[in-house]
UniProtKB/TrEMBL annotation, chain A:
Domain Transcription regulator PadR N-terminal: 7-79
InterPro entries: Tscrpt_reg_PadR_N, WH-like_DNA-bd_sf, WH_DNA-bd_sf
The protein's name in its UniProt record: PadR family transcriptional regulator
Source organism of the structure: Paractinoplanes aksuensis
UniProtKB/TrEMBL annotation, chain B:
InterPro entries the UniProt entry points to: AAA+_ATPase, ABC_transporter-like_ATP-bd, ABC_transporter-like_CS, ABC_transpr_LolD-like, MacB-like_ATP-bd, P-loop_NTPase
Keyword Isomerase part of the UniProt annotation: no
Domain ABC transporter residues, every copy: 5-225
Listed name of the protein: ABC transporter ATP-binding protein
Gene Ontology terms, MF aspect: ATP binding
Upper classification of the organism: Bacteria, Bacillati, Actinomycetota, Actinomycetes, Micromonosporales
Keyword terms: ATP-binding, Nucleotide-binding, Transport
Length: 174, 227
């Protein structure tokens, strides 16, 4: 969902070629997962089909990538809405953990041990992200921070749940 | 990894209230270990036993192969002064002294001459980005600056082990990060081992591994480094 909108956002800076868009996307947003050229051009085709971008007159040149993409008013409006609307909070991991803990208690399995294992995995990931943060550029550091705060939120939930396991067990086994 | 500090089956109670109930822990040479746990779990009591501030009711504390729980107050005091450094949550600088004098204090207490102690304090203040603040008292420093001075004081005598008890607990996120960056950077540069007591996962994530104190016992959720 965010790739088309991010490409549109990059086009709002200035009209651009597919190659340059991929380069900028990878530099800012895709270091862990760079875009393939196929994905760039298929996304740009869909954006053109939907009237979000238009292709300006091809420039003279021998290379295959001479199409220049220009954002339309509709595209700019979409970028603006996307930027100004809040993102829906995504409590997916908590839902999975909640299901695991509840099931473990229902099945008389060691719920606390599962939470401890999860906690160790979360801490390991936080250590890796902290290393990235301390050694990387500010952009890397901000991305790592975002992940760190989310993982920390899960950890707080894990701790709170661990402290309430007895009460939760009584409730679910009723 | 060589063990620097070790707790074996340590019990400690405040009156009738048990705080530690068979705590075991090992700290390796140059290792940064986070001690986590909820409030009242016994993590600060464990730090105080490891640092020779409290003497366990039973169990053993070994530092460099020596049982320090058998030392008298004088021996433990010398150990704390010469081998250990401390950073606490609220800095706890001496309010009448300047930043430079606060940092030089551990060296002066160890018998280092004032000129040498002051020179050493200046080096450390500069390394922690505080060289312009040497003459200020704690009342003239921001929370983050005061905590960096406290860190400089904890490190100035080049301790084998630095004990940090919630060192960022009174700071905002960004200032806390700066203090942790300096703490970890300095400890790594000097090969200092660190016992970092914190309830904040983001702070614990600066450590090499973490243990959790729960009901007075220590749970190692990640494997200890090979001996």
């Amino acid at each position: 969902m965010t790739v088309p909108l991010t490409l549109l956002g990059l086009l709002e800076r200035e009209p651009s070629h597919g190659y340059d868009l991929k380069r900028d996307y990878d530099a800012f947003f895709g270091r862990d997962k760079p875009l393939s050229f196929g994905q760039v051009y298929s996304t740009l085709s869909r954006l053109a089909r939907d009237g979000k971008v238009v292709i300006s007159d091809p420039e003279a040149g021998a290379g295959p990538d001479r199409k220049r993409y220009v954002i339309t008013d509709a595209g700019a409006t979409e970028v603006d809405s996307w930027l100004t609307e809040p993102v829906a909070p995504e409590p997916h991991l908590q839902t999975v953990l909640f299901a695991k803990v509840t099931l473990a208690l229902l099945l008389d399995r060691p719920a606390e041990q599962y939470l401890d294992t999860q906690r160790a995995a979360h801490m390991q990931r936080m250590r890796e992200l902290t290393t990235v943060k301390r050694s990387g550029r500010l952009v890397d550091s901000l991305l790592a921070d975002h992940a760190l705060f989310h993982i920390e939120a899960d950890l707080r939930w894990i701790e709170l749940t661990a402290a309430r396991l007895d009460a939760l067990a009584r409730e679910v086994r009723r | 990894m060589t063990t620097v500090l070790e707790a074996r089956d340590v019990h400690f109670a405040f009156g009738r209230t048990p705080a530690l109930r068979g705590a075991d822990l090992r700290l390796g040479e140059g290792e940064i270990l986070a001690v986590m746990g909820p409030s009242g779990s016994g993590k600060s009591t464990l730090l105080h036993c490891l640092a020779g501030i409290l003497v366990p009711d039973s169990g053993e504390i070994h530092f460099d192969g020596q049982r320090i729980d058998r030392l008298g107050e004088t021996g433990r005091s010398a150990l704390r002064r010469d081998k250990f450094g401390f950073v606490f949550q609220f800095g706890q600088l001496v309010p009448e002294l300047s930043a430079e004098e606060n940092v030089a204090l551990p060296l002066l207490l160890s018998g280092v001459r004032r000129s040498a102690a002051t020179a050493e304090a200046r080096v450390l203040l500069e390394r922690l980005g505080l060289d312009g603040l040497a003459a200020r008292t704690s009342g003239e420093l921001s929370g983050g600056q005061a905590q960096r001075v406290a860190l400089a004081r904890g490190l100035v005598a080049r301790p084998r082990v630095l004990f940090a008890d919630e060192p960022t607990g009174a700071l905002d996120s960004l200032t806390g990060e700066q203090v942790m960056d300096l703490l970890v950077g300095s400890a790594r540069a000097e090969g200092t081992s660190v016992v970092l007591v914190t309830h904040e996962p983001r702070v614990a994530a600066y450590a090499d591994r973490e243990v959790v104190v729960r009901d007075g016992k220590v749970l190692a959720l990640t494997a200890e480094p090979a001996a």
